[in-house]
Amino acid sequence: MKLSRLATLSLGLMLTTAPALAQADKVVAKVDGIAITERDMALATEDLGERLAQLPDERKRDEVINYLVDLKLGAKAATAAKIGDAPEFAARLAYYREKVLLDEYLQREAKKAATPEAAKKLFDDTTKAMAPEEEVHARHILVEDEAQAKAAAERIKKGEDFAKVAAELSKDPGSGKEGGDLGWFTKDRMVPEFAETAFKLSKGQVSDPVKSQFGWHVIKLEDKRSKPLPDFASVKPQIDQYLERKAQQDIVLALREKAKVERLDKPAEAPAAKDAPKPAEPKKP
């Protein structure tokens, strides 16, 4: 007997989803005969979030099971105490049911917006609109006073290696041991006095002593370039997150736009008079 196409698809779906459902319903522990399943574990792991993140991996599963044991025992005791019969409990349960429904709905619908095509388009549109930003690669020697800075600059002028002098003299705890190497940076990353001097230098040039709030600097420019744009793969997770959040916001706004919202906790506003003057429009920046 030949199966219809629909029956074949249904059978295939059952065969592929059955193992996953069986795994989710697998019992991993029992407390007073109450089963704790892998599905319970997944939900509790999501709920515990940051609390689990602080634990080593080998302790996380035990922590989740212990939490679920306490949860099952506490819920059993609360049921025996008829906590669930109180009107306040019913109201709280209804509230959290609606909250979970909304969260699940928004997550499901937002995933549809974060397609690879949408992510790539947003990346391309954003990078096209970005103006090239200059950055420099520099080294520096940081000392306490001008006399020390002049002495360091003089040694370099006489031919000593800048990195060697920086490793010997620089008081910068971050770059001193690295020969004064600051890596690549944009102008806004440094204090104004330092940045102005560094970005005016030519490749290989060493500055005169420069004073900042941190002390006195002697700066060497290693290189200049236009700051490279990030590659798509490295920023795709952030793009997906943005697309999903924007989609969720748009969904909520659309639902609110279609709804009739009535505020009964304050008096209705009087209808505006036809001849009432219109408010002045805000000035454009």
From TrEMBL:
Keywords: Isomerase, Rotamase, Signal. Residues 133-223 form the PpiC domain. The keyword Signal applies. Residues 275-285 have a biased composition (Basic and acidic residues). Residues 1-22 form the signal peptide. Residues 263-285 are annotated as: Disordered. InterPro entries: PPIase_dom_sf, PPIase_PpiC, PPIase_PpiC_CS, PrsA_foldase, Trigger_fact/SurA_dom_sf. It catalyses: [protein]-peptidylproline (omega=180) = [protein]-peptidylproline (omega=0). PROSITE patterns: PPIC_PPIASE_1, PPIC_PPIASE_2. Its EC number is 5.2.1.8. It holds the Pfam family Rotamase_3. GO terms for molecular function: peptidyl-prolyl cis-trans isomerase activity. Belongs to the PpiC/parvulin rotamase family. This is Parvulin-like PPIase. It comes from Bosea lathyri.
